[in-house]
Design brief:
alpha+beta, 2 domains, eight-stranded mixed sheet, five-stranded mixed sheet, 15 helices, 16 strands, binds adenosine-5'-triphosphate, binds magnesium ion, cytoplasm
Length: 448
């Protein structure tokens, strides 16, 4: 056809979460939220758009995110420089300082939501992706570091994910990193022939981040580089030892990875990542670390902080690779009706059944019309409902409804006629009775 309309597609690297996947996301979100609650973490929701300067300050100018991944734009109404948040810590810490949340003591916070980074889309790496994050503000010791790590372990346990391992490191404080940095630059300069273009660019701006390289040609050289751990002073070492002691006492397995770093000045001491081998190159499902100097750089009183962020898409994919849970049914009851009077009755009854706490799908007309009785029953079967409630002309005349079990064995499906005014009680009894002994139970039409 000549006047064919343009079809739109989602922005590259940004995904729709379709109803088929929604139950899995819901299971994931409910699990994480109930674990966070069980550790006393409180929800905080911050805007998706913030001033661009906030992220430059919070994340650091010489980082992948700020150098090349931010969705930044000018507000055409007033010229403000704005950015779609690439991560959640900056907004959370901004809110803590702005609302003086830590004035009456430390806070345990969590958030979830979409983040935006202009990266090359690939498996496990998108331009809009979802994170769950936690931030513990105002706690100084290694106990809170251990708590955050163990909270993550509980999430993996509750989800039945047993192939995620913990990598741990300490990056000390700014002064310790300064001494390490001098030796590191000297080491890299002595190995200049092995450095790729990105590493050469970062050599003086952010040499620590070179340790993070994924370039296979550089692995050998980087593995032999001076280790930050060897530069830690007494306090940093004591913090790290304190953390390991709690983890050991709680049977948390980990490997110390000296190459695990954060290339920013206000990240300090503990850094950790949860990694899986099941997802290919994008195997980090959660990353966290301490950022004691950050709140001060936001104009707040010196207040320690530590947090983590989980990549939800990667964890959902991991859940999928371990077998998907059975799709839950759309409703308890599907209402089938024929004729205008029956439709009116069906509306009234559907509302009453919902009042009683059950989920009801009421058959509604499509462009092809209301549909035959047979096609409506097909929809009822497909909905996964335990019962169809049927109202036809005869039922209207006799002031009854027909209740048909959809989950009995083939051929044994029972249909009963119930007075209209008794229908709600009867249906609630049936659904609850059926739920108690399961669909294969002979007794599932008993009454209480
Ligand atoms: P990478 O080195 O893989 O780019 P990162 O250091 O940028 O990771 P963080 O900023 O620490 O990642 O984000 C925490 C978690 O969020 C990551 O471990 C990952 O699970 C997830 N994540 C980060 N970027 C993306 C993305 N573009 N798409 C999907 N998930 C992401
Ligand atoms: Mg990244």
């Amino acid at each position: 056809m000549s006047d064919k309309k343009e079809k739109f597609t989602a922005i590259k690297g940004m995904n729709d979460i379709l109803p088929a996947d929604a139950p899995l996301w819901e299971l994931f979100e409910n699990t994480v939220e109930s674990v966070l609650k069980s550790y006393g973490y409180q929800k905080i929701v911050t805007p998706i758009v913030e001033e661009t300067g906030l992220f430059a300050r919070a994340i650091g100018a010489v980082t992948d995110i700020v150098e090349k991944e931010m969705y930044s734009f000018e507000d055409s109404m007033n010229g403000d420089q704005l950015t779609l948040r690439p991560e959640g810590t900056a907004g959370a810490v901004r809110a803590v300082v702005e609302h003086n949340l830590a004035y009456d003591g430390p806070k345990r916070l969590w958030y979830k939501g979409p983040m935006f980074r202009h990266e090359r889309p690939q498996r496990g790496r998108y331009r809009q992706f979802f994170q769950f994050g936690a931030e513990a503000i105002g706690f100084a010791g290694p106990d809170i570091d251990a708590e955050l790590i163990m909270l993550c372990r509980r999430v993996w346990d509750d989800l039945g994910l047993d192939n995620i391992r913990l990598e741990l490191n300490s990056i000390g404080n700014a002064e310790e990193r300064q001494r390490h940095r001098a030796d590191l630059i000297a080491y890299f300069e002595a190995n200049a022939s092995v450095l790729d273009a990105e590493a050469q660019r970062r050599l003086h701006a952010n040499p620590l981040r070179i340790l993070d390289t994924k370039n296979p040609a550089m692995q050998d050289m980087v593995n032999k580089a001076p280790k930050l751990l060897d530069y830690l002073g007494g306090e940093s070492l004591a913090h790290f030892e304190g953390l390991k002691k709690i983890l050991d006492a709680n049977n948390v397995q980990y490997t110390v990875n000296p190459r695990l770093v954060r290339g920013l000045d206000y990240y300090n001491r503990t850094v950790f990542e949860w990694v899986t081998d099941e997802l290919g190159a994008q195997g980090t499902v959660c990353a966290g670390g301490r950022y004691d100097p950050l709140i001060e750089t936001f104009g707040g009183k010196p207040t320690p902080g530590i947090g983590f962020a989980m990549g939800m898409e990667r964890l959902i994919e991991l859940m999928k690779s371990q077998g998907e849970p059975a799709a839950p049914s759309q409703c308890d009851v599907y209402m089938v009706h024929q004729g205008e009077e029956a439709q009116m009755k069906a509306f009234i009854l559907a509302e009453r059944i919902r009042d009683a706490g059950l989920d009801v799908v009421l058959h509604c007309a499509t462009p092809q019309g209301a549909g035959s009785f047979k096609s409506q029953m097909k929809k009822a079967d497909g909905s996964g409902a335990a019962f169809a409630v049927i109202i036809g002309e005869d039922e209207v005349k006799n002031e009854v409804v027909a209740v048909k079990s959809l989950r009995g064995a083939e051929g044994s499906a029972q249909q009963t006629s119930v007075a209209f005014d008794e229908a709600v009680d009867h249906i609630v009894d049936q659904v609850i009775g059926g739920g108690e002994c399961g669909p294969d139970c002979d007794e599932h039409h008993h009454h209480h």
